[in-house]
């Protein structure tokens, strides 16, 4: 008898975008990646969408989308980031759910999640409902169907939360076994309750929980297998596929039973290297051999309705329970003892004041929302629930939204005010993202992030011309103490780490003005949540000084608020920048001011120019520190280019002047002195990368002969070709060649692709080949298209198994063979 197997992965990262810029500021702790989203994406989310199953020689036998074989949820804020930054992985996640819907009779593998991972039992009633409704709306938007379930952040749950899920029409929910209090057969008496509060609830079946209103409405509860979850997360079950399957426990022979568990999705690749591969191999091969059939909760529940009823533990004071806090939900508002490390004398007493301060700000914002919103919106809170549609479709057409929710036809200014009120509420909910309390210290990046949301809430209150309770907020925050003495208390952390991230429309305008000085199209026409338009623009250079003037208009994508500036910016060379701006005075006055400034540009001294700029475009002044981090990096690349070129010329001269000595030392087998080695390595690598960039638009392998010569010269000297920029460029070249071969499907194009892959070996650039492999597998191997000799050669050079492509000495037929079937005589070409 085959047993259904459901492994649920909870895939989530806290929202990391700066609340003012919509960009993620650098997170050095994620090195070598720019931020933690990018790191976990590379280590977990992307690998699970294209998991390699390999033979004993590391050659690919299959590429598996793990999301098609597990139950999963993704945080909505994470998916919004992924849609922009890794659309291929995003598309594969959605495709996996669509495929599972077809395979499981309408029951997909994906489930929804409460919107921004707020601990629902600690929400007030309005926020809890909105978090559920926003999470469901986001799911419909992305997956194109109704969710059957919703992941509760940290599985945090209480009676109010379950009633809300039932009210919203959800069918089931996944909980920890330690959240169950007692169970009994449906229809049994009070004396038949069985206590399971020690975590020994049977995880092989579903349980029913009725709504407290007596209506008979209900939701199914799945209590995951805690022992299996521990094995996956902490006990090495992902070391191999065999180890994972050995942790599965067959239930007692009976109909209507399953094996299931829930874990952090980051276990599969981020927490455990190659965990994605162990999971894929186990579900594709090992589990079926042991009579387990990968499934999902929805299809199981349809065939096996609950026969038992369950009650949950109320938690301390009835506050609820969770999977990651042994003290109910204390981890998110008090020093309960749960933490993630730190020094021996550290505490988390800061959690209470942090939540108290945010509650104060939330309630103040709610009062403003209700009082100002009542004039503009029929039901402000219903409008907030519906606002997610605009968040998901920016820039959005607001006509339908206001037609349904506005009290009357609103003027443009009234629409801006209404949308600002709704943005106020969005950020007021983001303040409660659970990671703000999860870790060890008040100054951690996740905790500072929720403080940034609080600062953004205050800014929006100010835009609404209401009283900003900053002093009261800081008074409460001052009661929170960091464990790191130099960081001080919560008020100091807020001022030094959160508020400094603020970007005003004026500072954004200065950023755009200064950036424009060094690159014509440095920014897109959208920056930091604003659409911008540059008009009446002029930019010229005289010697080392560059001057630019323009009218710059910003329009918020979220609220439609407009900011119109008159701007003048100057670059004096090096890293010296200056920008002055003021509200736009009208075309006539702007043109007059511009004429005066430009008339003096060629002849006036620098102090005279600065005084003229200050008179006509000031008095507000800005410098390089007002440029957004990404803009600073690009400016640095431009500004220091000449300096780098000077160093490069000196290294090249040193190398060329001593080239004969270098060659003689190499021929004699002697190691180069460090100084000569550095000069040779830098010079040859730079020449190599320049040659690769020069030819990167060419798909002709012969165009890279000069690069091959340089690579060979480096090899003679024992110098390595770095896999950095050259590797990335050549990876793109190969990917483009494979895509062209797929599109045109001619032997000539396939031969070119194969030659370019072989050329990478001669160049020693070591491209990843990941995207090219995915393209080839999806278009050729998965559909099992007939392979020409040229296509087969491409497959082998892309490191696919000879057995998979029908190329071995024993004549094995081509097909998606089980892992481990390979020809040890065949080497990679």
Describe this structure in words.
The protein is an alpha/beta fold and 829 residues long. The chain has four domains: 3-117 and 135-154 and 167-176 and 203-314, 7-stranded beta/alpha barrel; 351-501, no CATH class; 505-628, no CATH class; 641-797, no CATH class. The chain is 46% helix and 13% strand. The chain is built from 30 helices and 20 strands. Strands 1, 4, 5, 6, 12 and 13 form a six-stranded parallel β-sheet that branches. It has a six-stranded mixed β-sheet with strand order 7-11-10-14-8-9, sandwiched between helices. Strand 16 and strand 17 form a beta hairpin. Helix 14 packs antiparallel against helix 16 (445-463), helix 23 packs across helix 25 (674-695) and helix 25 (674-695) packs antiparallel against helix 26. The protein is globular and about 95 Å long. Mean pLDDT is 91; it is low at 808-829.
CATH architecture of the largest domain: Alpha-Beta Barrel
Radius of gyration, whole Å? 31 Å
Shape: globular
As residue ranges, the low-confidence spans are 808-829
What is the makeup of the main sheet? 6 strands, parallel
**CATH C-level category of the largest domain:** Alpha Beta
Count of folded domains: 4
Give the proportion of residues in helices.
40-55%
Output the number of helix runs.
Answer: 30
Question: Count the strands?
Answer: 20
SS-based class? alpha/beta
User: How much β-strand is present in the residues?
Assistant: 5-15%
Mean pLDDT: 91
Q: Would you tell me which CATH topology of the largest domain applies? A: 7-stranded beta/alpha barrel
Distance between the termini: 45 Å
């Amino acid at each position: 008898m085959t047993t259904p197997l459901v492994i649920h992965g909870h895939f989530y990262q806290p929202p990391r975008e700066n609340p003012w810029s919509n960009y993620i500021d650098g997170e050095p702790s994620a090195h070598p990646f720019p931020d933690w989203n990018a790191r976990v994406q590379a280590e977990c989310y992307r690998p699970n969408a294209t998991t390699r199953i390999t033979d004993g020689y590391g050659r690919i036998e299959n590429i598996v989308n793990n999301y098609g074989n597990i139950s999963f949820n993704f945080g909505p804020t994470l998916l919004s980031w992924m849609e922009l930054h890794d659309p291929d992985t995003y598309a594969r996640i959605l495709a996996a759910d669509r495929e599972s819907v077809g395979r499981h009779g309408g029951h997909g593998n994906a489930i929804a999640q409460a919107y921004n991972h707020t601990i629902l039992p600690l929400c007030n009633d309005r926020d809890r409902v909105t978090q559920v409704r926003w999470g469901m709306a986001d799911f419909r938007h992305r997956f194109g169907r109704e969710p059957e379930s919703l992941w509760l952040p940290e599985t945090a749950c209480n009676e109010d939360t379950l009633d809300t899920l039932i009210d919203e029409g959800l069918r089931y929910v996944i909980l920890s076994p330690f959240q169950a209090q007692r169970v009994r057969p449906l229809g049994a008496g009070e004396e038949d309750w069985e206590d399971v509060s020690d975590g020994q609830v049977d995880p092989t079946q579903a349980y029913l929980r009725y709504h407290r209103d007596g209506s008979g409405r209900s939701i199914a509860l799945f209590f995951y297998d805690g022992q299996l979850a521990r094995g996956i997360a902490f006990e090495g079950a992902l070391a191999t596929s065999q180890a994972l399957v050995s942790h599965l426990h067959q239930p007692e022979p009976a109909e209507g039973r399953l094996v299931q568990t829930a874990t952090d999705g980051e276990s599969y690749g981020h927490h455990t290297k190659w965990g994605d591969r162990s999971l894929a191999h186990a579900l594709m091969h090992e589990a079926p051999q042991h009579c387990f059939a990968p499934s999902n909760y929805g299809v199981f529940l349809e065939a096996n309705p609950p026969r038992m009823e369950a009650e949950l533990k109320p938690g301390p004071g009835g506050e609820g329970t969770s999977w990651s806090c042994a003290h109910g939900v204390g981890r998110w508002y008090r020093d309960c003892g749960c933490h993630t490390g730190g020094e021996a004398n550290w505490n988390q007493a800061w959690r209470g004041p942090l939540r108290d301060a945010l509650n104060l700000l939330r309630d103040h914002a709610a009062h403003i929302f209700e009082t100002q919103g009542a004039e503009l919106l029929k039901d402000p809170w219903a409008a907030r629930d519906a606002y997610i549609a605009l968040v998901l479709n920016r820039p959005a057409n607001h006509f339908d939204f206001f037609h349904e929710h506005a009290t009357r036809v609103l003027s443009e200014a009234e629409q801006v005010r209404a949308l600002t009120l709704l943005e106020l509420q969005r950020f007021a909910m983001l303040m409660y993202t659970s990671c703000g309390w999860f870790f060890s210290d008040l100054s951690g990046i996740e905790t500072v992030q929720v403080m940034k949301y609080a600062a953004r809430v205050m800014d929006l209150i100010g835009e609404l011309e209401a009283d900003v309770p900053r002093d009261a907020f800081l008074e409460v925050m001052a009661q929170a103490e960091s464990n790191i003495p130099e960081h001080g208390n919560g008020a100091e952390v807020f001022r030094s780490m959160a508020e400094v991230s603020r970007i005003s429309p004026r500072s954004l305008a200065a950023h755009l003005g200064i950036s424009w000085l060094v690159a014509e199209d440095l920014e897109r026409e959208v920056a930091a949540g604003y659409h911008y338009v540059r008009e009446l623009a002029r930019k010229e250079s005289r010697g080392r000084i560059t001057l630019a003037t323009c009218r710059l208009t910003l329009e918020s994508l979220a609220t439609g608020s407009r900011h119109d500036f008159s701007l003048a910016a100057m670059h004096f060379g090096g890293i010296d920048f200056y920008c002055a701006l003021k509200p736009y005075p009208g075309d006539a006055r702007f043109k007059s001011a511009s004429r005066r400034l430009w008339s003096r540009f060629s002849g006036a001294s620098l102090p005279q120019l600065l005084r003229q700029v200050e008179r006509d475009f000031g008095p507000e002044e800005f410098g390089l520190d007002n440029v957004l981090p990404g803009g600073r990096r690009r400016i640095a690349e431009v500004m220091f280019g000449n300096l780098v070129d000077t160093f490069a010329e000196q290294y090249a001269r040193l190398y060329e002047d001593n080239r004969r000595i270098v060659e003689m030392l190499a021929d004699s087998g002697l190691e180069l002195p460090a100084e000569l080695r550095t000069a040779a390595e830098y010079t040859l690598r730079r020449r190599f990368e320049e040659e690769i960039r020069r030819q990167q638009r060419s798909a002709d392998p012969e165009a890279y002969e000069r690069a091959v010569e340089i690579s060979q010269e480096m090899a003679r000297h024992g110098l390595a070709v770095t896999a950095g920029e050259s590797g990335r460029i050549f990876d793109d070249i190969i990917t483009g060649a494979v895509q062209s071969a797929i599109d045109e499907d001619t032997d000539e194009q396939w031969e070119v692709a194969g030659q370019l892959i072989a050329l990478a070996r001669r160049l020693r650039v070591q491209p990843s080949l990941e995207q090219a492999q995915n393209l080839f597998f999806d278009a050729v191997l998965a559909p099992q298209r007939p392979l020409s000799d040229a296509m087969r050669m491409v497959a082998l050079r892309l490191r696919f198994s000879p057995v998979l492509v029908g190329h071995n000495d024993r004549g094995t037929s081509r097909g998606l063979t089980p892992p481990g079937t390979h020809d040890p005589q065949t080497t990679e070409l």
